[in-house]
Specification:
- By secondary structure, the chain is of the alpha/beta class.
- The chain has one domain: 3-Layer(aba) Sandwich (Alpha/beta knot), CATH 3.40.1280.
- The chain is built from six helices and seven strands; from the N terminus they run αβαβαβαβββαβα.
- The protein has a seven-stranded parallel β-sheet, with helices on both faces.
- α2 runs parallel beside α3 and α2 runs parallel beside α6.
- The radius of gyration is 15 Å and the shape is globular.
- The protein starts with 5 loop residues before the first helix and ends in a 5-residue tail after the last helix.
Amino acid sequence: MGRMGREEFAGADKLPLVVVLDNVRSLHNVGSVFRTSDAFRVESVVLCGITATPPSAEIHKTALGAEDVVDWKYYESTMDAIDALRAGGYKVYSIEQCEGSIPLQSFATVPGERYAVVLGNEVKGVQQAVVDVSEGAIEIPQFGTKHSLNVSVTAGMVIWEFARKLGWVK
């Protein structure tokens, strides 16, 4: 099926996107984000606060080894992670429903820019302080009775859309 080995993955070009998990409590969600990040060759995953880190049998259940090939870093504070990402030239966006948020399908990427997206806690979402310092907020329009999606589902949709808009998906 043309799958890459670990060495080939390590040396391959990466989607200029970092996925930041802000206090995500489910290890299965963390594992799923690693697996999706592997599938789209996301640059890295940043784990913050109470978000669990590898090695973990529970993360591995859904990551299926992606946690071993996708670069990741841990920060106790999401704000410290954002500061480091900005210093590295990333544009940081929170994935959150809030006043002034941009629908995902309307968000426009800029060629050559590097992006980071912050996904929040399963109950509380992205911390307000994080939303406040982000370049903006992006939301996924929803039409049912619930106004939230599982964080790993959200990650998949957001990563796909960034891959598409940045020209990785033809």
